[in-house]
Design goal:
alpha/beta; 5-stranded parallel sheet; 8 helices; Rossmann fold; 41% helix; 5 strands; 190 residues
């Protein structure tokens, strides 16, 4: 008989293997393997608000443990090249359709953050991207500075980039994850 403090597991008497198996099966039966339909529909809707497919959104959410509240793009991912600060129409249209999430950008030279913000109404804030020669602490300060200016936790921001070194922004900003621009902007994959 189980006493005070007993964890409810199988006893250690003869037949232990069978009782352990039966106990584990009972525990599994108590835990549902599927997400409730209402939660699934809400998450599918949220993925659409972010401009993502559900499978990608679910992977990022599972990894970070929370909802995505911000999207941090590199100017490479947005196809902003040169000093004009303008992005192609397809990227601008995709960004303008994002709902209930901050749209941020880290801008590589020769473009300037102020120029990019003036040319693109789809972004809420922008800052200078970390340079190749920046130290880790300088990179962290740039990435976290932009995220913290929006009062967002890093783990709720998804980095979307298009250069190998931009993957490091995830660790520097303690971000939710990284997507290549071709994964986010489906037309770039062609």
């Amino acid at each position: 008989m189980a006493g005070l403090g007993h964890n409810g597991g199988p006893s250690m008497e003869p037949g232990q293997v069978w009782r352990t198996h039966a106990w584990r099966q009972a525990q599994k039966a108590l835990m549902p393997n599927a997400i409730p339909m209402l939660v699934l529909k809400m998450r599918m809707s949220r993925a659409a608000e972010l401009g993502m497919d559900y499978r990608t959104y679910a992977k990022v959410r599972q990894y970070s443990g929370q909802d995505i509240m911000g999207l941090l793009f590199s100017s490479n991912a947005l196809r902003i090249f040169g000093s004009g600060g303008e992005m192609p129409e397809a990227e601008a249209r995709t960004l303008s359709e994002v709902r209930n999430a901050h749209r941020l950008a880290l801008v590589h030279p020769p473009a300037a953050p102020a120029t990019v913000l003036a040319a693109t109404k789809a972004l809420e804030d922008a800052a200078r991207a970390p340079r190749l020669v920046d130290s880790w602490s300088e990179m962290r300060a740039r990435v976290q500075g932009l995220i913290q200016a929006q009062r967002l936790p890093g783990s709720a921001v998804l980095v979307i980039g298009d250069a190998p070194l931009e993957t490091e922004w995830v660790a520097a900003g303690r971000a939710a994850g990284y997507l290549s621009s071709a994964e986010y902007f489906r037309h770039q994959a062609v």
